[in-house]
Amino acid sequence: VRENLAPGAVILRHFVLPQARTILAQVAAVVKCSPFRHMTTPGGYGMSVAMTNCGDYGWVTDRQGYRYSDEDPLTGKPWPPIASLLYQLAVAAAEQGGFSDFQPNVCLINRYAIGAKMSLHQDKDEKNFTYPIVSMSFGLPAVFQFGGLSRSDTVQKCLLTQGDVVVWGGASRLAYHGILPVKAGHHPDTEDCRINLTFRQID
Ligand code: MD3
Ligand code: FE
């Protein structure tokens, strides 16, 4: 099921629902090597979302700033690789969204406990904005907000649930977006949290 959310943004509802439990097991394997951690923003705030990465690079933030790093600052080791199933599903989703040459080399993994949120922001730490970002959601539902190229533009809201995939490219690539605080609930596959994966290509 394919819906156009905004110019350049396509939601593929339940695109990875059949693979959800396998993907969550692959996330658990990543977390054994590179655990979830609450990173600090350059302004000194602890993020409510816990994060880790797999891939050639991972997105990190600390008092020095936001950046991509080829090693996990917590372990000093490279990030675990992107499992081939995950890679293939991200590439297939991008293709459905109209992006045929996507070779993601970063997968940022976000874990939202109940009450965790992500404030409105733009993703602009990547060099090349012609590549899309592919996101996959699992576990508890969350309200996703997305607006325009200015923080003050009006936002639309949409609910993201287990297995939903969104491809963000073209005119939507630099849109402001965020996640409202996750409401209390229980999901059989994640217990009491929401997991989001974002695939990026940063070369
Ligand atoms: C729209 N993550 O990791 S995914 C992020 O659910 C992030 O964890 C949210 O925003 C989450 O940066 C939202 C959907 C998403 C991801 C990237 C985008 C939407 C986007 C980039 C541009 C426009
Ligand atoms: Fe983002």
From TrEMBL:
Q: Which GO terms describe its biological process?
A: oxidative RNA demethylation
Keywords assigned by UniProt, alphabetized: Dioxygenase, Iron, Metal-binding, Oxidoreductase
What PROSITE patterns does UniProt report for this protein, alphabetically? FE2OG_OXY (PS51471)
Fe2OG dioxygenase domain residues: 103-203
Task: Name the positions where Fe cation binds.
Answer: 121, 123, 177
Q: What is its EC number?
A: 1.14.11.33
Cited InterPro entries: Alkb, AlkB-like, AlkB-like_sf, Oxoglu/Fe-dep_dioxygenase_dom
* Molecular-function GO term, any one: oxidative RNA demethylase activity
Q: How is this protein named in the record?
A: DNA oxidative demethylase AlkB
Q: Which organism is it from?
A: Limnobaculum eriocheiris
Q: Taxonomic lineage per UniProt?
A: Bacteria, Pseudomonadati, Pseudomonadota, Gammaproteobacteria, Enterobacterales
